[in-house]
Amino acid sequence: MEIVIRSGVALRESTPLLVQWAWEEETLPTELASLVEAGDFKAKPKQTQLLYPRESLPARRLLLVGLGKRGSASADTVRQAAALAALKARELQLESYTTSLPASDMPTALVAQALAEGTLLGLYRFLEYKSNLSPEQTHEVARLELLVEGDTAAVQAGVNVGQAVAAGVKLARDLANAPGNAVTPARLGEVAEELGQRFGFATTVLGKAALQEGGFGGILAVGQGSANEPRFIVIEHGSTSPDSPTICLVGKGITFDTGGISIKPAENMDAMKMDMGGAAAVLGAMHIVGELKLPLHVVGIVCAAENMPSSTAYKPGDIIRTLSGKTIEVLNTDAEGRIVLADGLHYAQRYEPQAIIDLATLTGAVMVALGPHAIGMMGTSQELANRLTQAGEASAERVWQLPLWDEYRDMMKSEIADLKNTGGRYGGAITAGGFLAAFVGDYPWIHLDIAGTAWVESATRPYYSKGATGIGVRLLAQLLQDYAG
Ligand code: BES
Ligand code: MN
Ligand code: ZN
User: Fold this and answer.
1) 44 an active-site residue?
2) Which band of pLDDT confidence, cut at 50, 70 and 90, is reported for residue 212?
3) Model's pTM, two decimal places?
4) DSSP state of 413
5) How confident is the model at residue 156 (pLDDT cuts 50, 70, 90)?
6) Would residue 387 show up in a list of annotated catalytic residues for this protein?
């Protein structure tokens, strides 16, 4: 969809659909108030009312969308409302519709960005594998006309950012929604190369031979059971400079997680095609970094492998030597994400970064701890944790910090190797973080466990749909924009 910004006054527009935003406990403009029975529409959050104004307005249809109380609104209020409006326009099979920005105390560019994000993400769907759909089922709204009274520059700037962000989220969702037979480690490598071509990133994709040569024992071990060979992927935007920080983003890219020899139950195993959600978030964020040309040195690192049981698979009891030289005793082949990340996190140290952030669908335990509404966060830098907390609030991809005391790291020590890959039943999200901590040296590092948030069974927000959420992309985009100033 294209978003066209032009000057105009909403109530004077002739349009197939005019969307008007309304605050709870505030009076509607008289032209609108006369159209709705007082009390039927209270402008509660997510409340909508479709009206046919006939001769009282030039617009054919009018959609009132409630925003709730002005005092409790955030950018996400606008994002969610915009998604509802876009979905209604699509349901009505419209070619275009018209709106203006809601009146608010928030900065104009921010509101415009949220409006663009909500609109575009709300319309997201994954239809690639559906045959014989009717024109009604595939109908896309071609255009949103965004009317501005006065200066358009801030609105345009916000919409531009929103469009870039939505494109990054779409990439991440498409990758995580696609099945394991399409998105293999090799395919993730191709996607990285395509991004490199498009945005001028330096791209490195290491295959099995190069991984053996380089000593990437963790990624090789996890991937050795699959005919779809592993890849280690690096995409680099910008370069080291004294005035801009270096930030490494490391993504878990298990393109399918059967559990390996410690095989998972059959029920819901299909969902494990999304076990590359961390990698998808890194690639989506790099898309945005490239599109917005952020003045930062950002290194995207993806550890890609398929975790399969086979005669060549790694086994419980195996001891692996990782890239760092540290050894891991494998107690459960289903705790594979931390093993591939061990190599990626160690590799990140060569950039001497100001921040290392990993994203991983790492543990079922984080779902038990936080449910579907927060990313589990832990790490070694409170300053970086605070930045992410702020970015999480601003983007509505919220994080919640868990402790990472030495005692948790101790739970991952092995009797016969340096580390073991599971730490017992309790505190599973944190012990996984304790394991990862062994591979980041003294660099400021944050681990984001997105296992509970990367996938939804139903649209828990209007701009989500069943399947991949693309979580992490908007969080990283916010964080990186904050770094860029
Ligand atoms: N990919 C899973 C974690 C996961 C679970 C992601 C549910 C998304 C939804 C991970 O590789 C895994 O299997 N973790 C194990 C670790 C355990 C064996 C220590 C888990 O959480 O059960
Ligand atoms: Mn697993
Ligand atoms: Zn996994």
Assistant:
1) no
2) very high
3) 0.98
4) B
5) very high
6) no
